[in-house]
Amino acid sequence: MPEAMVSAPAQVDVAVVGAGPAGLMLACELGLRKVRTVVLERDPAPPGHCRGFNLNARSLELLDRRGLADRFLAEGPTVPSTVFVGAAQLDLAAMRTGHPYVLGIAQTRVAEILAERAVELGVRILRGHRLAGLRRDDGGVCAEVDSPDGRTLLRPGRLVGCDGGRSTVRKLAGIGFPGTPADRFTLLGDVVLADPQAIAFGVTAGANGTVFAVPRPGYVRLITNDPQPPADRDEPVTLPGFQDVLDRALGRHVEIAEARWLTRFGNAARLAERLRDGRVLLAGDAAHIHPPAGAIGVNAAIDDAMNLGWKLALVARGQAPESLLDTYHAERHAAGARLLRNTRAQMLVAAEGERLAPVRELLAELARAQETAGYLAEEITGVGTRYPVQYGSGHPWEGRMVPDVPLERGSLLALLARTPGGALLVDGSTGTDALREAAEPWADRVTVVAAQPAGLPDAVAVLVRPDGHAAWAGTPSAPLDTNVQQVRGALQHWFGPPTVVL
Which of 128, 227, 324, 408 has its CA 20 to 30 A from that of 119? Predict the structure, then answer.
């Protein structure tokens, strides 16, 4: 360690490592709740290339519950279907969601919008700051950070690694990253063609392979299999090498006039052993990497951040016990396992040539059929995510994202967008005074509001977490004292001990 140390930033509650979508979404969640947060990003400027170009329905649902979805929807077109396996199209209109489509938006633009929002909320984003060391004690975390001015010691209460698949945080924390290594590789090139009409949009089957072409403003993205990757998978992709693979796949020459970005990626699938190790946590690619099927990576990152953000804020503010953070691991580790399963399955079926052609045909039929299209679309996009509940009545909303319930004044989405806490929705047409009174000790964390009559089907009340998921639903068939007991248990489990009511 250099002898000279520069002054550390002012005291922070949470340090987030990585200014990608996961880190910036988490910073927004923490900033919304007045948690002192700093984002450390090793690169001095945002990348000049873009890894992905979509937000799916699950991400838009989450952003809707922060009043942010419209900022993103203004950026690009929406499409009611997406590629599934092979050439099959997945019908997104069959999903139970307010956003039955995929939004075409560059991942770089997603990060820009989130960074703008984080700064609005008082978060500091420090670019050119690289995490170099990490120690932990009972009082917090000691992070050694290399900055443009020298090495700094930062002591946040907690540190979250959102720093990608090769996460420095994960390695320094000693968290295992088991899974399957890559055995298939793909080349991606953002290029300018000498003849822009030489390759049609979509999948082109050539003499020795296929090429997927996605037109972008001023260039085209080409994706094709890498038949002979080098022994060193980190070896840079060269323009002559990419040109050769492209021509071989097509069986003809298609001249590349300029290469903007060339890269190689594999189908490795790994999931961190734990997403929480004391005061250190992981989110996004630092927590899981997976095959690129469905372009789900940025969406899973936002999902992790939304799940973690409100819980970490309650703990950092002393309103909930440390054990609340264990639910982050439990929920998102299971979601990560499903993500790996789904993406691996899609890649395996798509890659196995004629042998699995009948399987692809069957899946294509299921992706279109009325009885199964909705389930497949919700499973692949994460819209069907359902978290375990501790105090359940069996209501179909429990654990799922609650739809936009009409309230006596406004709507649930509007309520969640303007308040950082949760909500207890009560059926205004029934006697729910006892439920209102039960929630009073949590008034600083949960807003009690009346839904319009019939706004809560088959429920007298629904407890909504800050991320929009139902933590509990009381049914009219249950005795009132049972509903009161359950809602108190759910409130304490998800929002911490009650505040003493004078």
Answer: 324
